[in-house]
């Protein structure tokens, strides 16, 4: 505990029920440790529909390990939306900034906003970096990376970190993108490969003029990297590719060499009326109709549900939605992001849902 | 109970649908502008509080004392009324901001947020003005409706209501622990004692801040700072007491029996909120400083809509009430306050017999 922290704790008796951080945050949002924040310092275009946000994290940030992701909260029309993104910059940046690289998804409201609409100076919220898609402390002599699309982002953090150290182990990077121009960090990757003889870059381009898309499958690996089975591997890409990789490594009996990073869809499909409701902490579940409140479903299943007015006015019944979407039984409007607190007394299941109770 | 709602079941349904529609319109337009509003109010409030306390370090000089105390009292009023009360209602939960959310907010009032949310958001807002269910009718202390049975202790209520005004936050903290329910055996003493301990711990921290820590920091200005903080707290208490008493206790705000609300529909609940509440007319500053509880009717219809929207809802709600023949009680602050005090004094004596609910007129 630093002296500064001790002083802040003493100051808390002057600010109760608020924290000194609540006041510090008024002067500069980055000073508040109550909720970690970051300031967008620059937005760099990487490729079509892809941008890198350079963010200065505020007080309370822990240095990330190369390959980890960070959950970032962005304010859109007054509402905070959270999404996880891999950190693409090398750890221990001398300027104290981190970068995330975002690809605008076709129906991704937030990714589109991040790529097009975040001005430098904007404040975002951050969580501490997480994830175990990282390099081991003792570096193995040979490495393999297989990535597709924006799946290169965590690997880029690793490669940048290794390059900064000045020593590149024997590493093979197999990356798939629609065309040469679509390769995120294409120029930098090619430069790295030219600079370090031990780094081999294999680009796979799926778009063939006039022909059907030529996907990268693991069956192509032995030709690209004959000793693939002996290398610890880091694989990041779309779900189909990850499933292919998991089956491929398992079949070869070397599943313990494989580490994958999955980018989960931020919003569950929803769209249904009713569904299976799971209460995560109490381990109970029940099938629910679309017009039954989650509160009633939980009570019938024997879950100790917080409740109050039972008509949607008092907010005593708030519970966290861990997955799925709900429908407001008063208005019929569907909503629900992961982690959202929903009023169980006026929310019905719109498809399968999980509640943190 | 001078009169009863004259709505038929079909009318009540229609009234409810019309209000649901109003609610929908606000929800559809809720966005960045509203978010900016509450963030700005919070920033102004914190700035005023910091500024006031800093100025008070010079409070050996009378003008500094006056300026600092005014700033601090204003900050405390804003914090309780427009920020605390409304955030705890969940009015800003939609922003998904963990720092401005009903589940994480704590306010500068002796009553802990969790206890307040139970007794206020749930009990008072659900069972508004139902005799025997809404504990806010006289706060288990005062006779404010002629339907409440008289007791000789009420003879002193004009006096102890005055005292209550000065220590309102402490009264509310004590009230939120529901001691009288434990006394009647409706609630265990164990639970009540546990709640009381939480309240005492919180109230203790509040008291240390205002009456020990800041005065000590001020050194030679110990006494002026102590007196300034006391003045700010009492001003806030009297103001909150005044605004809140104008919400449900003036002439025209009706009480209901449990039989009357049996089988109540959503439309009926809406009608009861209108009949049981009273607004205060005044300028924008009054609305801000009252936490928009000057729109008590709109607040009771839509307790979890952002408070900055009540002003725009009010004319629409009033027009609806006129269309359905429901009285919409409102008046200036002085008139409503005088009216409340007249009642507190009159009802300290036995009688008058409550106007019997005349079912034939409904």
Automatic annotation (TrEMBL), chain A:
InterPro entries: 2Fe-2S_ferredoxin-like_sf, 2Fe-2S_ferredoxin-type, Beta-grasp_dom_sf, Cbr1-like_FAD-bd_dom, FAD-bd_FR_type, FNR_nucleotide-bd, MRET, OxRdtase_FAD/NAD-bd. Residues 275-357 form the 2Fe-2S ferredoxin-type domain. One of its GO terms (molecular function) is oxidoreductase activity. The keyword Transmembrane does not apply. It holds the Pfam family NAD_binding_1. Its cofactor is FAD. Residues 33-136 form the FAD-binding FR-type domain. This is Stearoyl-CoA 9-desaturase.
UniProtKB/TrEMBL annotation, chain B:
CDD domains: Delta6-FADS-like. GO terms for biological process: lipid biosynthetic process. One of its GO terms (molecular function) is oxidoreductase activity, acting on paired donors, with oxidation of a pair of donors resulting in the reduction of molecular oxygen to two molecules of water. One of its GO terms (cellular component) is membrane. It comes from the Bacteria. Residues 64-330 form the Fatty acid desaturase domain. This is Fatty acid desaturase. It comes from Parafrankia soli.
């Amino acid at each position: 505990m630093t002296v500064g922290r001790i002083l802040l704790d003493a100051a808390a008796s002057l600010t109760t029920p608020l924290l000194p951080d609540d006041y510090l945050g008024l002067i500069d949002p980055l000073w508040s440790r109550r909720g970690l924040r970051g300031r967008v310092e620059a937005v760099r275009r990487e490729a079509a529909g892809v941008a890198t946000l350079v963010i200065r994290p505020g007080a309370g940030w822990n240095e990330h390990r190369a390959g980890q992701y960070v959950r970032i909260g962005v304010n859109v029309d007054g509402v905070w939306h959270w999404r996880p993104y891999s950190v693409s910059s090398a750890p221990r940046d001398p300027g104290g900034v981190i970068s995330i690289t975002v690809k605008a998804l076709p129906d991704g409201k937030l990714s589109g906003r991040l790529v097009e609409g975040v001005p430098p100076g904007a404040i975002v919220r951050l969580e501490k970096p997480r994830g175990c898609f990282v390099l081991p402390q003792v570096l193995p002599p040979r490495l393999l990376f297989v990535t597709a699309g924006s799946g290169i982002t965590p690997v880029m953090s690793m490669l940048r970190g290794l390059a900064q150290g000045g020593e590149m182990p024997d590493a093979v990077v197999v990356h798939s993108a629609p065309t040469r121009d679509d390769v995120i960090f294409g120029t930098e990757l090619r430069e790295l490969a030219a600079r370090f003889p031990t780094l081999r870059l294999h680009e796979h381009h799926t778009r063939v003029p006039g022909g059907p898309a030529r996907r990268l499958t693991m069956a192509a690996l032995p030709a690209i990297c004959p000793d693939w089975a002996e290398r610890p591997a880091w694989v990041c890409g779309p779900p189909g590719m990850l499933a292919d990789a998991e089956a491929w490594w398992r079949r070869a009996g070397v599943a313990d060499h494989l580490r994958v990073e999955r980018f989960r869809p931020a919003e569950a499909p929803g769209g249904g009326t009713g569904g299976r409701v799971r209460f995560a902490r109490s381990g109970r579940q029940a099938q629910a109709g679309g017009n039954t409140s989650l509160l009633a479903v939980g009570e019938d299943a024997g879950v100790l549900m917080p409740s109050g007015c039972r008509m949607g006015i008092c907010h005593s019944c708030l519970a966290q939605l861990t997955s799925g979407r709900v429908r407001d039984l008063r208005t019929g409007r569907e909503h629900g992001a992961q982690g959202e607190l929903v009023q169980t007394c006026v929310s019905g299941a719109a498809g399968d849902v999980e509640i943190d109770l | 109970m001078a009169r009863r709602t004259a709505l038929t079941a079909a009318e009540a349904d229609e009234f409810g649908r019309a209000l649901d529609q109003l609610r929908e319109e606000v929800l559809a337009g809720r966005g960045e502008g509203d978010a900016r509003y509450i963030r700005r109010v919070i920033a102004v409030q914190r700035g005023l509080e910091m500024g006031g306390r800093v100025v008070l370090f010079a409070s050996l000089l009378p003008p500094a004392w006056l300026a600092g105390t005014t700033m601090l009292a204003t900050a405390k009023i804003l914090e309780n009324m427009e920020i605390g009360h409304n955030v705890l209602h969940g009015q800003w939960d939609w922003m998904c901001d963990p720092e401005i959310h009903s589940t994480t907010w704590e306010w500068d009032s002796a009553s802990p947020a969790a206890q307040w949310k139970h007794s206020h958001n749930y009990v008072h807002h659900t069972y508004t003005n139902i005799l025997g269910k809404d504990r806010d009718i006289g706060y288990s202390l005062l006779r404010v409706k002629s339907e409440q049975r008289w007791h000789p202790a009420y003879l002193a209520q004009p006096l102890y209501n005055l005292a209550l005004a000065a220590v309102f936050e402490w009264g509310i903290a004590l009230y939120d622990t529901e001691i009288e329910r434990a006394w009647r055996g409706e609630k265990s003493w164990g639970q009540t004692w546990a709640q009381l301990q939480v309240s005492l711990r919180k109230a203790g921290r509040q008291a240390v801040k205002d009456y020990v820590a800041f005065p000590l920091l001020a050194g030679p200005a110990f006494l002026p700072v102590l007196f300034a903080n006391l003045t700010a707290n009492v001003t806030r208490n009297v103001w909150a007491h005044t605004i809140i008493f104008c919400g449900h206790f003036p002439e025209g705000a009706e009480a209901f029996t449990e039989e009357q609300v049996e089988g109540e529909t959503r439309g009926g609940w809406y009608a009861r909120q209108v009949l049981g509440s009273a607004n205060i007319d005044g300028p924008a500053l009054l609305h801000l400083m009252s936490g928009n509880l000057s729109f008590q009717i709109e607040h009771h219809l839509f307790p979890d809509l952002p408070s900055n929207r009540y002003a725009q809802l009010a004319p629409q709600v009033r027009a609806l009430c006129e269309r359905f023949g429901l009285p919409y009680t409102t008046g200036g602050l002085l008139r409503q306050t005088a009216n409340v005090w007249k009642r507190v004094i009159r009802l300290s004596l036995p009688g008058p017999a409550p106007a019997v609910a005349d079912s034939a007129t409904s």
